[in-house]
Amino acid sequence: MNNTFIQSSYKNKIARISLKIVIVFTVLVLMMLTTASIYVHYNKEKIIAKIKEQVYNNVRGEVHIKNIDIAVWSSFPYIAAQLNNVSLLDSHFHTPLLNAAEISCKINLLQLLGKVHDIAKVRIANGSFHLFTDSLSYSNAYLLRKKDTASSASSSSSSITIHNINLENVSALIENVPKQKRYEFHFSSLKAHIDKTDSILEIELDENCFVKGLGFYLAKGIYLQNHTVNTANCSLKFNTATRELTFDKTSFDINHHIYFVQGKFHFRDSSFFQLHIQTKDIQYKQAMKVLTERIQNKLAMVALKEPF
Questions:
Q1: What are the tens digits of pLDDT across the range 211-225?
Q2: Which are the contacts of 34, defined by CB distance < 8 A and separation ≥ 6?
Q3: Comparing 124 with 55, which gets the higher pLDDT?
């Protein structure tokens, strides 16, 4: 009887202590949220000005932002900045590299005023991306390089690290007229987690994509024309020093059939690439559809009825 009473009393004591801890923790979180909300409320214009300053200091070309909203409660311990109707234009043709109805990001409030900015997440929704090199070899690719101005050596300069990128309903077109290259995609969704170690970017990728075509050399035709391509947990490595992108054997759902793909792409001096593709239990005609029309016509001379 006494043991039962002691155990019950001990459990009640533990419950009361646990409840107090929860209450104290909740109060502390609410106090921090309230403090952050008050700070953002009275310093909203200063924070918005700082965000614009960082964008203009780090991005080349013309940047247009119609509106910026700041929120705390939905993203604590970060602040959420939502940029509406954003465009990034080159300074020559004034054509957009990027158009987006909405770009939102989560920023560490304490780091915003410092020189190192870790952005937890960037989300781009309802937009388009167009990277081009025209017939005269003019390219808007310079817009992707960090702005190098006299101010970059001043105390106002900063480095920006993005850890997660999400795309929703975003189209992408990459074309190079002199080299006859054209790659066109539409991402209904894409999620990328990025870690950086020295010059290596490690990227974990999930995507639901519609590929309009991959033209490595347009004179020879277009691969994957009008195909759905989905993948999950795809691990990519990009060496920023050698400009080399690699990924090990990964499963891709291409038009509702599983393919295993391994690849290496070189972007520095040439467009050399290697791709190893495997699949099984697929109809011959279905397998040919991922190839160019020119190759399909040659392979059509061989008729296979059974899956291979």
A1: 999 998 899 999 999
A2: none
A3: 124
In tens, the pLDDT along 235-282 reads 999 998 888 999 999 999 999 999 999 999 887 766 677 889 899 888
pLDDT, tens digit, 9 for 90 and up, residues 90-106: 988 889 999 999 999 88
**Per-domain boundaries in the chain:** 1-42
